[in-house]
Each structure stands twice: as structure tokens, then as C-alpha cells.
Amino acid sequence: MQRPGGRSARVRSAVHTAVLELLEARSWEELSVPLVAEVSGVHQATIYRRWGTMSALLNDVVNEWSASTASLPRTGSLRDDLHIYAAAVAKSLRDGNVPLILRAVVLEIHPGERRKASPAFVERERQLQLMLDQSEERGEAVPTLTELLELVVAPLYFYALFTEPRTEAEAARLVDRLLDIVAHRGPDATAASS
Amino acid sequence: MQRPGGRSARVRSAVHTAVLELLEARSWEELSVPLVAEVSGVHQATIYRRWGTMSALLNDVVNEWSASTASLPRTGSLRDDLHIYAAAVAKSLRDGNVPLILRAVVLEIHPGERRKASPAFVERERQLQLMLDQSEERGEAVPTLTELLELVVAPLYFYALFTEPRTEAEAARLVDRLLDIVAHRGPDATAASS
User: Fold this and answer.
1) ipTM over 0.85
2) CA spacing 20 to 30 A to B139: which of A97, B5, B61, B90?
3) What is the pTM of this model?
4) Interface test with B, best of A19, A101, A156, A162 (most B CBs within 10 A)
5) Does residue A74 fall inside a structural domain?
6) List of chain B residues whose C-beta atoms are within 8 Å of the C-beta of residue A53
């Protein structure tokens, strides 16, 4: 909706940085456009004109994260790829801005409304499916994308949200269990599991 | 902090009901003590005196849910117990107040702070461990509590938060996969997995 670059890009960056700082330091009750204005040094009127509401602003922060998700590893071994990927998920849930982004995602859940998968999740799933497809072409026994999400990603997010984020070693354990399950059923049984 | 029963209990109930209605109908930006007062018909001053902040009020709603969690099934078969339990989790994530409570739990996450497991989760885990212990005493091959949480509960919550809540049939599929994993390693290998 705005031309990229120049003043517009600087304003967006300052405002996003302020939102992440506030998500980290303040209770959700305190999040507000006036406070974002104060922390970012951008005029309230500018923020209201560009984003409209605090809620729309949070969505924009989430979308920017989506656009900047790193590409996945391609080591030539599915186990290595998955270890690197799961360690990166665990690490991002332990530090950096992802827990804050996750919090913004959840703040934007509107109960009773049909969810729209965030662009970040859609793109990440596309990349993971590609990783699995390439592994299958190499003749490896592969899990389905659903299995990968349920057995590795879901527990990491569950722990990060409701108890304590897990270590990279714990993430590796989840990957190894997934691959054990796949190994038990052999390379030709993948289709039967979905 | 307040004596139970009488006017105090009626006020608490009216205020909690109003919070759940607002969590369902409004954006988090709109949640406020004045709005709770308006919807519940309880004076703002009373709410401030009793709970202090909107955040403390949300915590109280979560704690009441915790105290009222239903007891778990005891059918004499772990598979049946787990099917009933997982179906109940899936159902509660599809309708009722649990998605709203879950939203309140996440609103109360303070990034960077060490998490304290909610009393609801602690009590539920205690009950699940008891279910597993009783099954093991009957000579069944049982998963660890960690496996149950990671392979059944975590995916159900993950889907409910980030995509779509799953059906009872999907919950049953998660239970069956868990028990397949346990069956593959046999009844004496439980300890090796934790």
C-alpha cells in the first residue's frame, strides 16, 4: 500500500522495532498506538494513517517476518536437514523475536472466526514439502509433512507457549523419533500413513 | 482472598462470564475493565478493588477453569481411556470456552520471564500420569506422560492455535499412532524412551 524505500521504509522499520520492543517489555494491556508512537518517535497520526489500528500493525509485523523466513538446509541427508531445521526452530523459540511474533500471531486469533493460515506458515510448509520430496527422490524413507509438523514442530511450539522452550538437543530427539517411526514402517509404506 | 458464596460469588461469576463473552466477541485491544463493568453490570470500582488489573482478572478466569477441569475416564483399557480423553480435548478446542481460556493463557505469557506452568496444566498432568500408572499396573504397554503430551496433546493445541481445530476422529488417529509406537517397542522398553 506504500512505496518501498526511503522515508516510508524507515518509518515502517522504526515502528516495527518499537512494536517488538513493546511486545517484549510490556503487558498486552499496555500495547497501544500512542505508546508505539512514543517509543518509535513516529507521529501517532502517521501510524493511524498507515496502519489504522494496533491490530493491523501487529499483522504487518507478522507478515514482514513471513517475508524474511530463511531458506531451509540442503545437506543431501534428510536426517541432517531435519536436525538443522529443528534446531533452528528451537533456537528461534528460545531467543530472538520469534516468541514475540508468535505472541502477536496469537493476539490476532479471533475465536469463532475461520482461521487463515499465516503466510509465514504457508511458505514454510512449501519449503518443508520440497525438502521431503528431494529426500524421497534420493531414495530415503521420508515422513509426510503432516508427521513432521505433528511430531517435531507442534511439540516445540507447545512447550514454548505453555511451559519452557526446548533446547536444540531436545529438538534432535524429536527428529530422531520421527525418523525411527518412518524406519519401522519401511520406505514403501509412506502413503499408508497419511 | 474473598469469602466464597453470596454476593461475592455472584459478582465473580458475572464478571467471569463477561470476560468470556468479551474474549469471544472483541479484539484484545478492546478488553478493558470499563468494558467488563459495562457487560457484567458490576461497578468498575468493585472490579478494580477485587482484581486490580485486566491482566489479574484474566488469570483468575484461567484459575477457575483449572479448578473445574473434569476428571478423566477409567474404562479399564488404556486405548479407550485415551480415545475418550483425546476426543474431549479436541471437542473442547472446537467449541465451548476453552479456546477463549487458551487465548487468555497466551495473553498472560510474558516473554523473557520464566514460565510458571498454569495450575490447570499441572493438575491435568497429575491425572494423566495416574491414568498411565493404573494402565501399567494392569500390565498394558504404556507411553510416558511426555510421549502422550508430545504426540497427542501438542498437535491438537498446535492445530487449534495456528490452523483449524481437529475433529474427534483426528484425535483418535493421534492416540492410535502413539499406541503403535509403544507396541513396537514392547512392554519392557518404556524406560528407555524417556
Assistant:
1) no
2) B90
3) 0.78
4) A162
5) yes
6) 27, 29
